[in-house]
Amino acid sequence: MLKPKALKKGDTVGIITPSSPAPVLFRERYQRGLNQLEKMGFEIIKGSCSNKIQAYRSSSIIERAEEINELIYNDEVKAIISTIGGLNSNSLLPYIDYEYLKSKPKVVMGYSDVTALLLGIYTKTGLTTFYGPAIIPSFGEFPEMISKGKEYFEDIVKLKKRAPFSLEVPLEWTEERLDWNLQDRGKEMAKNDGWITLREGNATGKLIGGNLNTMSGFIGSEYFPNLKGAILFIEDSFKDMAIQERSLSMLKVAGVFDEIAGLVIGKHEHFNDLGSPFSLDELLIEIIGDTNIPILSNVDIGHTFPSHVFPIGIEVNLDTIQRIITFLEDGVI
Predict the structure, then answer these.
(1) 313/176 same-domain check
(2) Is 303 a catalytic residue?
(3) Among 16, 136, 138, 252, which residue is least crowded by beta carbons within 10 Å?
(4) Does the pTM exceed 0.85?
(5) How confident is the model at residue 135 (pLDDT cuts 50, 70, 90)?
(6) Catalytic choice (91, 235, 247, 308)
(7) Which of 105, 124, 157 is the last residue of a domain?
């Protein structure tokens, strides 16, 4: 297992746009995100696809892969952070220089569709990657990054907290969606009802996971990690009950629920239950069946804000009786 060095003031962060051309579509918010990183003490290098657009994607598959490799090869770059997600980061997996990244580890961070890159890199190199904030939706929030989100980022990648430590439940959260090009106020926050125990238990294992919908694009491939004994975390956004049944059943038929030691479910942004007489948590239990693993739901990770940063590959303890997630090791050195 490899770990990158902790980030410090003056370090250079490279910015990638591996799928959606969001920097072109949301220029002001993109720049605000870059400014936020600079205010936190980092130098910035924009990736070669940050000003490109090809309909639904920033650029061609090869050009997007080259953008990542250029930042991998640049030894001044200590972290690579995605501008946003999208739908097609999985197309880049065959073209990344995993061996060079393995020889010169650095922080790689993003969420949502970037799950493909985070898990692919982890699987191919053993390098801890980070399910955490992206430039446009997170660092670029109006009028500035949510303070707890900033705190959670610095706790992990700047080592402001040292393991072992347990994650806090934020007092408030939001899933409010405003027009990014017209936004003139901060998002309204709601009281956090806390994390929910679906099945009681206690388990320890490697923390592995990401966006559930994205996993369907490369599960069963050489880029998908071994989940035996893992604490799996999954989250999703803008998906209804029917799609969730399909995606969760994908994990079921792939044998995932028979291999993992525990399961963490993130808050689901703008979920549509389609008038269903049962909840998403009840659907999950129906699909999993008799597999007796601890399950914790409604956790603050992914598309809602603030969101914890999950280092992929570290050892964690999941106690669903007390509703506690404890990081047993740091994600950086």
Answers:
(1) yes
(2) yes
(3) 252
(4) yes
(5) very high
(6) 235
(7) 157
